[in-house]
Amino acid sequence: MLALDLLFNGLIIGVFYSLMAIGLSLIFGILKVVNFAHGEFYMVGAYAYTLAAIMLGLSPWLALPFAFIIGAMVGLVVERLLMRPLYAGYASWGLMRDEYAVIITFGLSMLLINLVDKIVGPYAFKGPALIGVSRLYIGPIVISGHRLIAAITAVGVITVIMLVVRYSLWGRQIQAVAQNRFGASLAGINPAKASAVVFALAGGLAAMSGALLANIFNPTPDVGVFPAIKSYVIVVLGGMGSVPGGIIASLILGVLESFGSVYISYQYRDTFGLVILIIFLLFRPQGLFGQKSREV
Amino acid sequence: MMMRFGIFAFAATLFAGQALAADPVKIGVTVAQSPPGSVSQGTQVKNAIEVATQIVNDAGGVLGRPIELVVEDTQGIPEKARAAAEKLITRDKVVAIIGEHQSSNVLAAMEVAHRLHVPYINTNGWTDAIREKGYVEVFNPANYNSRVAVAMADTFKALGAKRVVAFCENTDYGIGLAKLLGDQLKERTQGIDYKFETLDRASKDFLPALLPLKANPPDVVVEIMLPPAAYILLNQLYEQGIAPSPKTWLYDASGLADYPDFWQNVSDAAKSMLVFGLYHPKMAAPALGKKIADEYKAKTKNDPSRLLFQAADSLFIVTEAIKSAKSAEPDAIIKAMEELKWTGTRGEVTFSKEKGGFKYHQWIDIPYVTFQVTAVKQNIADTKLVQDPGKPLDTSRLVKPQ
User: Fold this and answer.
1) What CATH number has the domain bearing residue A209?
2) Domains of chain B, CATH where assigned
3) Residue A127 contacts B, CB cutoff 8 Å
4) What pTM was computed for the model?
5) Among A147, A250, B91, B269, which one is most buried in terms of CB atoms within 10 A?
6) Which ipTM value was assigned to this complex?
């Protein structure tokens, strides 16, 4: 029974990880840079959801899309103001684009944490529950109604995002730009627009993840730091830029942490992912779904 | 000409003397004002010290000089607490440091105070290790882990517990108290099975550590953590039906229930919880305690908490020592504090001079109670006092969790 409990909890946590990691993976896929402010998109979503519900009196079900929109808008603004110099006419920046991305996203992360700290305050804010059932019994498993509904909602959102990226016109444009930015532009696709869409989507997804977890993890301004670290691990494990790889890696990490905490030690919970990461980097650096590549 | 010069020189000396007399006495305050430290605690401490300072200054200050606070944000990080102490002493020239509310930070900052020989008042560092260092500069009007451990062991014995599980944060305070509880249970009770699990205070999901308890719940679950991690732990314990439950008592060793953001973050999870309390409105309070409580409430619109009294006492102890020594020099203040016998906000404060152990420079007889939260969003004043100061737990007053 304990094993079932751990499996269930691990899968649910994995679903939340994947919601967060998909955005990061998409950004890496299309821009080939790591966004160190991704955890703060998550934090913005958690606060947007909680404050919209508590202060504006919005229903939690309306606060969810509100958080998504706020996250998407933050993503869009970040792309337009901070990321666009990476690929919009700043040819001489090509050599130091990685450094630029690291510095600018780190700075943005600090800025967002401190802004929320000063404007909203440093106190923890528990978000409202999506349903008012504190405990649900599924056979031997006990789970809060909110946790279950949040996980189901997350699965729904992930499914929709997968379908959009795979089959919609925008999704195909994103895939094309991810494969070959220059080639896509020759085919009439606007890479800048595709990048903007990806950033908005990534911001919205991370914000949605934060919103869904606001009732469980009582957000504070630094709430995004840990999920962001997990997301970096997941993106590498899944294969840089691979959305399905990211989802599978998230579920594996969630379950691994859950079982490892009990059967090895809770003390090492956050190291399991890093150990797996090192093993992958040694023996399969391209990750689960990544492809081996070589620049010539 | 000479006479004019003489008058001018006399006037200049007089005014310079007056300016010197009006120079403020600077006292350093280190608190967490941003995460990952407990900002909730830091804000209460800072507000309380400001209220106490106002009271002192309104009464004419000390030695005819006003008190000026120099506040530093430590973020609850020991390295920052250490740097803050260094800055306060060397650059701001404070006569004493007060306010720290996290044990790890006290342990870091007191090394600086010891090296530079400046009085350091530990406002809320509970770990015994602070006292065991035996530093002459460090005084402890704060509660201490040994006292909580003894209180808990006696309480669990009175509850008839056979199995106790504690969850502590990965700090000097958390691990220290969890270990001491084990020692006290061994010493004061027979046959209580005890274990503790250390949790990362930056973590958010504690379920994997809690799930193994579902199959065989203990008689008591003890929470030894600070917010916000403590709130998450309480919610997840409740969500899984582990504690509080008809089988399992939930015991809060950290005094969470009087935090201003407590009920915003914890709802049903805290109902029936037993709380180790250093303050309860039903406790008898000295006149200074009532005065500071009223002024704190007027300033912050929050109900008084234990931290209010601890923080206010920290400031008053320094000012009383300066008054009694008639000097703001470190040695004079330290000597005066060692001889102090003064009624503060919680009772008569004296510091033990017994060296070697947790008693050194400790106010030994800090009053405490145990109370039970019996309803959601309950004010502390309405909670049920199940143990009066200096008395054993009255089990007949307990309300069994449903």
Assistant:
1) 1.10.3470
2) 7-143+285-349 (3.40.50.2300), 146-277+368-397 (3.40.50.2300)
3) no
4) 0.83
5) A250
6) 0.85
